[in-house]
Amino acid sequence: MSDLDLLRPMLAFATVVETGSFRAAADRLALSPPYVSQMVSDLEARLGRQLLYRSTRRIALTAEGEAFLPHARTLSEAFLQGLDTVRDARRGLTGRLRISAPTVLASPAFARVVSGFAADHPGIRLEIDMDDRAIDPVAAKVDLALRIGDPGEESRLARKLFTTRGVLCCAPALAPKVLTPEDLHGLTWIRSPSTPSRLSLCGPAGQEHITAPEQQMVVNNAALVRSLLLDGGCYALFPEFTVRDALQAGHLGIACPDWSVPGVSVHALYTERRTALTNARAFVDHVQVSLAAMDTRPAPG
Question: How distant is the alpha carbon of residue 250 from its chain centre?
Fold first, then answer.
C-alpha cells in the first residue's frame, strides 16, 4: 500500500478531531461512523502509533495525535482547498455566509471590502454580526470569525490574514500637543479588553519607551471609543486601515506621530466546511486582496 492511500484516513482523522466525534465526522464526510472509525484505526496501524483515546462519551488526542494533527490538517485543508478552487471555477458561489467581526472594523474601509465582495458574489447571502465579545464561533453558529490581535486558543483552523500598522489616535485639537510619550501623561488610555495594559512605543532613533498608563479605561465598542476621543483628554490604539478615512478627513488626529507602536494582526477563524468553508475562504481572499490594494495608498502622517 502506498503512503498516498493515507490521505483519506488523514482527512477522516482531522475531521473527527474538529467535530469531536466519529458520528459528527461521518455526517460531514457523508460516510458511515463505523467506516470513519475503521479509517482512523487503519491510520494508527500504519503509523504504529495511537492517535486518539476513545470512550463511549468522548475522544481525546494522545501525545502522538497532538504532534500529528497539524500535519494532517495542513494536508487535508490543501486537498479540500484544491477541490474548491477547481469547482469554484465552474460555478458561482451560493448560500449564506455568517460572519462575526469586532466593531473596530465598522469603518468605511471595511464597508468597501464588504460591498466589493457582495458585488462579486451576488449568490451569497451575507450576514455580518459586529460584536466585541470573545464569542465561540461554533456556539454562535457563524461560518467565519474575524479577530483583531490574539486569535485565542481555538481548536479550529485559524489563519493570519495580515498585520497592519497600529496608530495612536486622539482628538484633532489634541494632536499638536501630544508629540512624545511624555505628552501622554495625564491623558486617559482607552483600550479594548484584549489589549495589554502596557503600551510599547519605538522612537524615530530606535529608542524604546514602555509605559503602563495610570489612567486607563477598558471599552469593548469602537464607536464609543471614537466618541470618547472626540471629547478630548484621551487616546486609543487602532489598526491603521480602520481609521485611515477618519484621519484623512481630519475627524481624528495622530498622537506621537513620529513614534511607532507594534503592528496589529488580524486573524480569521473558520468554523465550517464544504459550501460554508468555500464561501468563507472566498471572503478571506477578497479581504486580503482589497487591503493589499489599500496599502498602496499613502498612509496618513
Answer: 29
